[in-house]
Amino acid sequence: MLDLAIIGGGPAGLSAGLYATRGGLKEVVMFEKGMPGGQITSSSEIENYPGVATVMDGISFMTPWSEQCMRFGLKHEMITVTKVSKNEDKTFTISLEDGSSKQAKAVIVCTGSRPKRAGFKGENEFFGKGVSTCATCDGFFYKNKEVAVLGGGDSALEEALYLANICSKIYLIHRRDSFRAAPSTVEKVKQNEKIELVTNAVVDEVYGDASGVLGVKVKLQDNSIRDLAVPGIFTFVGLDVQNEILKQDDGSFLCELSETGQVVVDLKMRTNVEGLFVAGDLRIDAPKQVISAAADGAVAALSTISYIESLH
């Protein structure tokens, strides 16, 4: 029987593991099929984490987190969790992809979010063949070529700036004429000669052939179509939370969710199910920032320690 099962190995999960093990819990396992670090490892530049003055990429930033957590006894199992369910004795069953399961006194779910699909014609057909959601992963393939970026938030503008170091030109497409990103980032984009703003516009279609994307058709405010002959487009239009493991066999969810699928928690990261905690992007009103996810993980771990102490 585990004291605590942590599902997800991003900033929230790692922070929860650190605080739980250092706080005295003995059997703590973090379930994460891939290498720990989470979605932030695909970021090209992190410069807003307090106390880390050096600008670095996401992988470099997250690498020391795992080492620090494991030092206090956190165990990492590289396997996917398929479902979390609650037992009659108030413990939890963690169902795993290989058909086995683990029992735990408490669970912290930190499965985070994934990039949303934008919904334009050709997006699914050419995903991975010219349509991407990760400039750090795929930017190199477009060295000295022109590409498009779709979005108006921090991620879109930051990745456009990153791509400007690699590509010959960036068309930044946004449905409005103002951006949601930080003013300093917007200013950098506007001053970058390689970035052309295509505002009040939406992507109508991505087209190509067996080799991949050949161009992007953009619908402008006057309903005319502008054809951009680019071999790639990077989309950054928000995130969908990953709540699938909370779905039960009857189709219901283990705990209360908001209308948009986020888990409802209180300030102590407690769900409406005793012993079940949620941290990071999955929770309601999450700011979707590394520092917030890390804080959530710490709060959830401290709440878990109090909960397990109350069982005795």
TrEMBL record:
It is an enzyme of class 1 (oxidoreductase). Binds 1 FAD per subunit. The keyword Oxidoreductase applies. One of its GO terms (molecular function) is thioredoxin-disulfide reductase (NADPH) activity. Its EC number is 1.8.1.9. It comes from the Bacteria. Residues 3-297 form the FAD/NAD(P)-binding domain. Homodimer. Belongs to the class-II pyridine nucleotide-disulfide oxidoreductase family. This is Thioredoxin reductase.
